[in-house]
Amino acid sequence: MGMDFTLYGAAGSGSVPVEAALRLIGLDYQVVEAPTWEGEAERAKVAAVNPMRQVPALITPAGEVITESAAILIWLADSHPQARLAPTLDDRRRAQFLRWMSFIPAAVYSMFWVRDEPSRLVGADPKAQAEIQQRTADRIADCWRMMDSQITPGRFLLGEEITVLDLYVAVASRWTPRRRRFYAEAPGMAPVVRRVDALPALQDFWAERFPFDDGWEG
Ligand SMILES: N[C@@H](CCC(=O)N[C@@H](CS)C(=O)NCC(=O)O)C(=O)O
Question: Is the peptide bond before 177 cis (omega within 30 degrees of 0)?
Fold first, then answer.
């Protein structure tokens, strides 16, 4: 099979759950590596396909560009129903699936636009920047706690079957304030993300794209 999908992404980034979904579905893809948070040169690589200059951005075999991690994950799952990575439209879990798939980018992921470069909001003042880092980390922790209070996982977040929501939360929960705090704030979801970390089908993938290096839990 040819390289049908092209994904602009980076190790450890929001492209990782998308890459994991592509792997689980069994689709062939290539990654254009662009760690955008490292600076202008990396962001410029993405500008041609995504004027937001962010990853992930997926180019489909038909040449369509899809940005926004949640949209990409939902679209991939819905258009490959045989992989069973999302509740279908008539499934009673669909509403909660969409709820949490929207919550992650709106409440959690959006904080990283500020965290990655606090000067975007507060200029060069180091004290204000440190405050931004602290407050956004606390806000993310609060969001995980609120989500945990509203969800009753089974083996996975929505029940017994893995969905792209599990991939998304497993990756996003490794970012600041990182897993140790996530386990404390979200004890109900903690066993689920550990289960996703341990999925045999993804062991080589995690090692390549988001390794569990010493001290990774924070
Ligand atoms: N809303 C976007 C956010 C994507 C995003 O923030 N990506 C980060 C990398 S993990 C990025 O490219 N940051 C560079 C920037 O915002 O300038 C999504 O959900 O895909």
Answer: yes
